[in-house]
């Protein structure tokens, strides 16, 4: 399920049921330890799992879907209670709406969601309802993104280019000159609680005020801009000869904990870096660093190649999110749809088959905790396929100062039988409600500067 973090998300052992208590000590049987870059990282296991109903709507009447497309923690909101539980406010940024029949005029936005988290540290098996009690999201409000003057941005595919001026680069727009944004990553600015968002159409990074007004746009190096026959063309429907692949722009965005740098990652290799754009030989993607010390004069200060994992057909396991730990360590979500940890097993060190006769080997156990499972059974416990956000918060545990809570939210693609979009109702072709799943893990991360992170989050 999370292959780039596979070593952190290890096996979940089962034991005899015990009374649920988030004050319990960590059960060592759940832990997976990894030595990496001179540090010992520990995943203490999945400690909470909840869901958000697929048929809820935001204050504008649109279905609250795609919540896991990007997420960040609101500064000053994270707290640990005396009983060991937590609460805070998640900034959730969905993508471009329910668009199964093509892009729609869905204004990009972010939502504020209150999170209540009661970690469960025992190894005993818990039900889906137990999971719902361990983690709960409540909708608060939303803010749409707009240009100066109040014109709302849109998720429609951009077929035109607004020419650059002395303040703005060439920008993707519709025939009505509406700024087109396919919002993906989000990071909070430590200095003034404004936002930085990354998009896939450009790919650009936009600076957004607290009220949703777009203040500026940061253009990537020319090598990543989509060129068709020597002309800039921001459409996501077709690929040109160079630049980002359609729908494969800046999928991940994260900020350094001292608040001076942004890091953005391209979802997969650029067209000119691939054998076949988006399909084959596209594992060499780009990671960029921007100095945001002065938001009015953002500078590119780093540009690296990152090699993504690949399938047997040499197709990149495209990355969905990026998380800053320190200047040299960035966990990333790179999906392949599987959820077993095979490190240090015969399936890693030999040619043993994991699925002889197309059936999973008996000694490989799918993830089972809080009623979740990762097999072929289609029900509410089936783990979502699209996990696209990472939120890191300190555990605020004096005895374990290097422990953190890692929250990840799934993107449910707005799938519901009772959907609402732009004033109209819809019934998704899947024919069922797919609730948004949320999971929380407890990690030991010795390389994270706890003081800087607390200051960054205003704790």
Provide a descriptive summary of the structure in words.
With 459 residues, the chain is mainly β. It is 4% helix and 31% strand. It has three helices and 26 strands. The strands form eight sheets. The chain has a five-stranded antiparallel β-sheet. Residues 1-23 and 339-350 have low confidence and may be disordered.
Q: What layout of secondary structure does this protein have?
A:
Elements: E1 32-36, E2 39-52, E3 71-73, E4 79-80, E5 86-92, E6 109-117, H1 128-134, E7 135-144, E8 160-162, E9 171-173, E10 183-188, E11 195-199, E12 205-208, E13 214-218, E14 227-228, E15 231-232, E16 250-255, E17 261-266, E18 284-291, E19 299-307, E20 319-322, E21 332-334, H2 346-349, E22 391-394, E23 403-409, E24 419-421, E25 424-426, E26 436-444, H3 450-456
Antiparallel strand pairs: 1-2, 2-26, 3-5, 4-5, 5-6, 6-7, 8-9, 10-11, 11-12, 12-13, 14-15, 16-17, 17-18, 18-19, 20-21, 22-23, 23-26, 24-25
Structural key phrases:
disordered N terminus; 4% helix; five-stranded antiparallel sheet; 31% strand; mainly beta; globular; 459 residues
Summarize the structure in short.
The protein is mainly beta.
Across the major sheet, the strand order is: 1-2-26-23-22
Rg from C-alpha positions? Answer: 21 Å
C-alpha termini separation: 31 Å
Anisotropy-based shape: globular
Order of helices and strands: EEEEEEHEEEEEEEEEEEEEEEHEEEEEH
